[in-house]
Design goal:
alpha/beta; 6-stranded mixed β-sheet; 33 helices
Length: 774
């Protein structure tokens, strides 16, 4: 196939990121540091909107980390039939194993997400719950989530926790969060405030410079823990009242669906002093400090601070009045009289519902309480036709009274699959307070076009894995090669062939704890393929005077043997150079594989992965002083290489002067190369001679009369001197990832490694080689 026709298959048909063009659209919902219950409503509501738009069988839900807070995966799965759901990494153990590296953590989550997509074909949209695990700083979690969003190209809906009363403080925090996310190239399509007071905050937020989706006010039903939460978090034994743990017990006090507000914590002394407390607060203007109450009534400070107080530590009259109904009693194991009083009160029609439950401290088991509970259950049965499951919950904890009260203050509300009323309330709040148009825009908008280095790397690794090409590595005894082979096999990037003595290769692998069982090992000295390769070698090099003996000698060289494997179709590509020179890698390829039609030289490109895009630089590694003809071939083959990796090429042929006005030999050489390149491929967008600043900046190009249609993404340097300096200057000055050199112009892919190549470089080069197979 002619080169210009081959390039035409790619130009104009692909854009950077096109390797994922069949992937489902997705949005990440970022959790708040506290992960409050209303966030479940945001997740469920977004899933619901996606279902309405895409249909039941084409929506998925993915949670980045399984290890804290409510079980969103289980709840979503139960709530929305047909939605495919999965958790990513398995909580804290994975994070600990990654030694705090956010890059490795993001890749681990992304790998899990990719497996989820692969296992569930046909999904049009996926709602992702961002990374959250207890014990990690806000900064760490934000960094992971922003990297994950750019890595996957997802739009982002950010939840913001309204812990501050000041609307200015909340707005400032939200603005700073959005600014930081955008600085990290995250596309924020919606911001939702959760737990706000609503006092003017909603209107204030609507004027902020980001897409405000709504404010979900604090909901006491969701912000109050239940007796089941208390049981789980205090490690309590439930002595009676199991029905009351999750919510249907009659209460004269407004309560949440799964029980009562267990923040209403008072010991019996507070109950006994209630009337005096109310009168004292009333006589002092309706607001007194906890310290004043403690001094006046000699009450335990830990009991008092369990009450709802304002930010200045003040308590109001109504804070005491609230306890007139459904009071939680905390008492000691030896105060059975308190427990009897509660049961007697509940047996009274007039007083039933006065107490929400009893916590018995210093409980170590025993028959005394059991006898009281059994008697109360029998009395209930006779009086009300019920049994002990309908009694107010009575729980025993091992801690002493003082410690129990302190621990109660730390109990937080949780959600479970059994919390049906709470779950429904979160979804109801989402529908009531969040603008669906903003969320639908997040669902409908195309993926961000930003391409980060990790995204680009992921794209060619993913494409290589889909192709499953067979790549030969001639330097089979080099530990870095074996480590790379282990990684490539683990990720199923390519089938690997290692050349060398099998015993020696396995010895090196064993000494370095490297697993290579999935690789094929071929020893050229004993291979059954050698005779076939000798005959093919003589045939290819007959005009150069090659003989059988010369062929046998050449094929003792691992690079020649590996190149012949590629030539004969026993391998799809070869990667070498970690312990050999570039000449030792390229020479066999030039002699045996040879260059493509209309191409007389082998050249190279580097993929320069900048923070938000990928550029292609050529030739920065092979040809010292190319002629105009050679430079034109470098330009066209570089465009071809760019197209193979999803980049629609716009080529700029660089010089120190823009346009054809300059008369220096250097500029004339580039000008002539531009004309020749246009003849090689008339459809290729190619500009030059042009200076670098004009090539990458459309406005500067217009000012210099170049008339470019957008910035160039394939930049061709006039010689090796400028090219090598140029790519290293950008790499070192900007921190860009330089992937390469990638050899081009050969009929089959052979690539060279730097002798200082890291394992990651070898993995990348093998994947790129696999992608280049046509």
């Amino acid at each position: 196939m002619k080169l210009n026709r081959l390039i035409g298959r790619f130009t104009g048909r692909r854009r950077l990121g096109a390797l994922q063009r069949n992937d489902p659209d997705s949005v990440i919902v970022l959790p708040t540091p506290r992960r409050v219950p209303d966030e479940l409503g945001v997740l469920a509501g977004t899933v619901s909107l996606a279902l309405n738009r895409h249909g039941a069988k084409s929506v998925g839900f993915f949670r980045a980390a399984d290890g804290g807070g409510f079980d969103s995966v289980g709840i979503i799965k139960d709530k929305y039939e047909g939605v495919r759901s999965r958790s990513g990494i398995a909580g804290q153990s994975i994070v600990d194993g990654l030694s705090g590296s956010t890059d490795h953590l993001v890749e681990s989550i992304a790998d899990s997400y990719e497996r989820f997509r692969k296992d569930n074909q046909g999904m049009d949209f996926v709602v992702l719950e961002g990374f959250w695990l207890p014990g990690h700083s806000d900064g760490f979690m934000h960094e992971v989530n922003s990297k994950l969003a750019t890595r996957l190209g997802c739009n982002v809906i950010a939840n913001v926790d309204c812990q501050e009363d000041s609307k200015v403080s909340v707005a400032s925090y939200a603005e700073e969060l959005v600014r930081e996310l955008r600085r990290r190239l995250v596309h924020v399509t919606g911001v939702i405030l959760v737990g706000g007071s609503g006092r003017g905050l909603r209107k204030f937020m609507e004027s902020r410079p980001f897409p405000f989706a709504g404010l979900i006010p604090k909901d006491k039903l969701l912000s109050s823990p239940t007796f089941s939460d208390l049981r789980d978090q205090l490690d309590a034994d439930v002595l009676c009242g199991t029905k009351s743990l999750e919510g249907t017990v009659n209460s004269k006090k407004v309560s949440i669906a799964t029980g009562y507000d267990v923040r209403d914590v008072m010991v019996e002394r507070l109950e006994l002093h209630k009337t005096s407390l109310i009168r004292f607060i009333h006589d002092n203007g309706g607001l007194v400090s906890i310290e004043e109450l403690e001094a006046r009534f000699e009450l335990d400070k830990d009991v008092l601070t369990a009450l709802d107080v304002d930010k200045d530590g003040m308590i109001r009259e109504e804070d005491i009045v609230d306890y007139s109904n459904a009071t939680l009693i905390v008492t000691s194991f030896d105060r059975t009289d308190i427990l009897l009083s509660v049961f007697l009160s509940e047996l009274s029609v007039q007083d039933s519902g006065k107490y929400s439950g009893v916590i018995v401290s210093s409980y170590l088991g025993g028959s005394g309480l059991k006898e009281i509970v059994d008697n109360a259950a029998e009395a209930y049965k006779l009086r009300l036709g019920s049994d002990h499951r309908s009694l107010p919950p009575v729980m025993g904890v091992k801690t002493a009274l003082h410690a129990t009260v302190k621990n109660l203050r730390r109990v937080t509300p949780q959600l479970s699959k059994q919390s049906e009323r709470k779950i429904d309330r979160t979804i109801e709040n989402f529908r009531k307070f969040v603008d669906p148009d903003v969320i639908l825009q997040s669902i409908s908008q195309p993926k961000s076009q930003v391409v980060t280095p990790s995204m680009f790397q992921h794209q060619f690794l993913q494409r290589a894995a889909k192709k499953q090409r067979r790549i030969v590595l001639p330097e089979g005894t080099e530990p870095r090669i074996l480590l790379a082979a282990q990684e490539l096999l683990r990720k199923h990037v390519a089938d690997i062939v290692l050349l060398g003595n099998e015993q020696e290769i396995r010895s090196v692998a064993g000494a370095n704890a490297i697993e290579i069982n999935g690789a094929e090992i071929i020893d050229p000295n004993s291979s059954s393929r050698t005779q076939k390769y000798v005959e093919e070698f003589v045939k290819l090099r007959r005009k150069k005077g090659a003989t059988v003996d010369m062929a046998k000698d050449a094929l003792q060289d691992m690079n020649y043997f590996g190149t012949m494997m590629v030539q004969c179709g026993d391998a799809d590509g070869m990667v070498s150079g970690s312990i050999n020179t570039t000449a030792a890698t390229v020479r066999p390829a030039l002699q045996l594989i040879k260059t493509k039609e209309n191409i007389s030289i082998v050249s190279s490109v580097f993929f320069m992965c900048l923070p938000d895009k990928v550029l292609v630089y050529g030739d920065c590694a092979i040809n010292p002083k190319p002629t105009s003809s050679e430079l034109s071939q470098i330009a066209v083959t570089s465009a071809h290489t760019a197209a193979q990796f999803g980049i629609t090429p716009t080529v700029a042929m660089l010089s120190f002067s823009s346009g054809d006005r300059a008369t220096s030999p250097e500029v004339r050489l580039v000008s002539e190369a531009v004309k020749l390149a246009r003849k090689l491929d008339p459809e290729l967008k190619i500009y030059g001679p042009i200076q670098y600043d004009a090539a990458v900046n459309e406005n500067i190009a217009k000012g210099k009369g170049m008339g470019m249609e957008g910035p160039a993404n394939v930049l061709i340097f006039p010689d090796l001197n400028t090219g090598n300096i140029g790519y290293k200057a950008v790499q070192q000055s900007t921190g860009a990832l330089a992937v390469g050199p990638v050899l081009q112009g050969l009929r089959k892919p052979i690539n060279d490694l730097s002798r200082g190549a890291r394992v990651a470089d070898i993995v990348n080069t093998v994947a790129i080689t696999a992608c280049m197979v046509e």
